[in-house]
Amino acid sequence: MRTKKRTTQPSVLIPEADIERRIGELAAEIDRDYAESDRLIAIGILKGSVFFMTDLLKQLKVPVSVDFFQTSSYRDSTEAGEIRIRKDVDLSIRDADVLLIEDIVDTGYTLRTILSLLHFRGAKSVKLCALLDKAARREVEVTIDYRGFQIDDIFVVGYGLDYAELYRNLPYIGVFHAVED
Ligand code: IMP
Ligand code: MG
Q1: To 10 degrees, what angle do helices 50-59 and 16-33 make?
Q2: Is residue 160 part of a domain?
Q3: 174 touches ligand 1 (CB under 6 Å)
């Protein structure tokens, strides 16, 4: 048989129950902080944030609208951290309190771009809620107002995060190891 690289099923780094518990805590904090808000818009960054976002928003009691950005980095760009906006939000964010929802903050370039765009468009306030923080990889400073978990510099999948568009639907955060056989 030909030697071929394959992957095993990812092993559990953060179990489903821990994610669920942490989301409950974050939702309680967000509810408290936005109790007085006139217009709160939660904006998810596609596609990775979707699983986290829906679970989080279902726990919120404050009124909230939902919208999405989709971004990608230019693969052939010479400019480090140049971000392309593939899908813009539908709602006007002028004078709105915006809660950005992201799966993971890695270098920080995606968030830096989105945050400055939202400020430019006249949002009243912008806060960031990220499930995972890979702080060791940060190249530009980003303030994470609501953080699920800090993780080491390892590639993770599941609960929205993909490897080659797979594994997003795992109910936990996992790590996988390539094996030679
Ligand atoms: P940043 O602009 O480098 O912060 O990019 C963050 C984006 O990179 C995330 O929204 C993910 O799509 C992707 N990403 C970063 N680290 C991982 C990982 O460990 N697994 C899967 N996707 C990741
Ligand atoms: Mg992403």
Answers
A1: 60
A2: no
A3: no
